[in-house]
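The material for today's practical consists of a large collection of protein records. Read left to right, the backbone structure tokens trace the chain's path through space. An example says more than a description, so a record of this kind follows:
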Amino acid sequence: MINSKQFCFIFTSLFFILYYITLIVIQINDHNMIVHPFSSACQIFAYATHPNFALAAQKDESPFTFQIFKVTNKNCNNYSVHGKWKIKYRPIVGDHIHLGISIRENNVELTLRDRKLVENIPYEEFKPSYTCVSPPKYAYTKQWFHSGVHTHCDNIIHVHPWSAPRELRVEGKSVTLGTWFESVGISVSSLENKLRMPNSTYREWTLEYYIHVKDMYASFTTTSVEEMVNLWLVDHHGYIKLYDKYSIAPAKDTTVSGYRSVSKVGKKYPRRRI
């Protein structure tokens, strides 16, 4: 006969055995995660560094084509956790957001426009050989491309990845202030820690970043050009002050707060306002 203690032990052991043999392994980016088969996709967001701006993407592939399902932390309870997942970040194709920016050089406010997409680069030290017939007036031609991060000459950074060619568009954490610098012709010298505005000289700069234009205090301040270039442009209605060492910080222009965001993933574009 089995007494009550033995019965409890056997029952508990069987319960844990059955529980563990029903666990499954899923893949998130390059990591494996053990989950219960009835778990929702919400567990994926435990691996996200910024869950509000994260998307869990899963590819459904056939011998002929594929489609990608995107899940947010708002609707993840509606999806099973099975399979392979990739964590992506906003902004992505389908998002359209705006950030304000004020630039002051020598205490003069600058309003920049998108650069010309073709730029002739002058010769440096080495000139064409005298044997060259009809040498060009420049060393080479540099071709720039629209990346979906640009301006309308309105002191607004417009971010909409869908407008760029498929192979050239940037999304997620690759949407940086450095991408916008390239679009408007701001040159970067990371080794010297300097920026050069169009038709100006290299100099040192300070950047203040506000998660929302109406925030009283900056969320982030830096004099590092490397940090400026890698600033993630993710906050709709965010604001940037950029000024050189000969200038005082420019005032904020709240015009950007009147620009609406568009998001075709989820009901509305997420925020992280402090």
Q: What stands out?
A: The first helix runs from residue 4 to 21.
